[in-house]
Structures are given as structure tokens and as C-alpha cells.
């Protein structure tokens, strides 16, 4: 976590990889490595680790939030909306969630996004 907070994403990825090797069922190891990949701009690697996080902890709202953010950055707006709608079932009172859903729906319906 210190490496991640210090912005040393390469070291953080290495540390979280070791955690995953030692304890592969630990969802948070996958989630933190996904975060490090995201911060390094490696969105596909981050999405792969988010998938692993959700495989181990299907209610991990932070993983869903991150997944949706990445899909938006990749221009995959419909996928981002689907993820947020799943998140709405898990955490209906998550701050900012309804606004994000509304914004994506409005843009998709209005033709502003594809």
C-alpha cells in the first residue's frame, strides 16, 4: 500500500502479484493490483484483475465502480451503464451512483454516446 500511495505503481504491482501468488483467493489482492494497473494506465490488465476480484467477491462495490470508470474511459458506455445498474442493486445509496447512471442513460438515449 505504501508503494501505491507513493505512486510507485511498478513496485505496487510486484507486491500485489506476490500476495496473489501466496493467497490467490484473497479478493483484495486482485483489487489492489487492479488499482495499480489502472493508475499506470493499463486498463485491460486492470479489467482482468477486476474480473478476478469479482469472481472471489461478487459484491465488491469498489471493483464495480472501477470497472465502470474504465469502460467509460474506453468509450464502452453501454457496458459502463450495465455495470452501474448492477451496482445499484448492491448499493442503492452509494453517493454519486444515481447521477452517473442518469448521465449515461441520458447521453446514450440522446445519441451523445455510443
Description:
The protein folds into 2 domains: 1-58, Serine Threonine Protein Phosphatase 5, Tetratricopeptide repeat, CATH 1.25.40.10; 60-114, no CATH class. The mean pLDDT is 94. With 114 residues, it is an all-alpha fold. The protein is built from 7 helices and no strands. The protein is 75% helix and 0% strand.
What key phrases describe this protein's structure?
single chain, 114 residues, mainly alpha, Serine Threonine Protein Phosphatase 5, Tetratricopeptide repeat, 7 helices, 75% helix
Topology, pairings included?
Elements: H1 2-5, H2 9-22, H3 27-39, H4 43-56, H5 61-73, H6 77-90, H7 97-109
CATH superfamily of the largest domain: Tetratricopeptide repeat domain
**Fraction in helix:** over 70%
CATH architecture of the largest domain: Alpha Horseshoe
Order of helices and strands: HHHHHHH
**Main sheet?**
none
In CATH terms, what is the fold-level topology of the largest domain?
Serine Threonine Protein Phosphatase 5, Tetratricopeptide repeat
Shape: globular
Summary?
The protein has helices at 2-5, 9-22, 27-39, 43-56, 61-73, 77-90, 97-109. The chain is mostly helical.
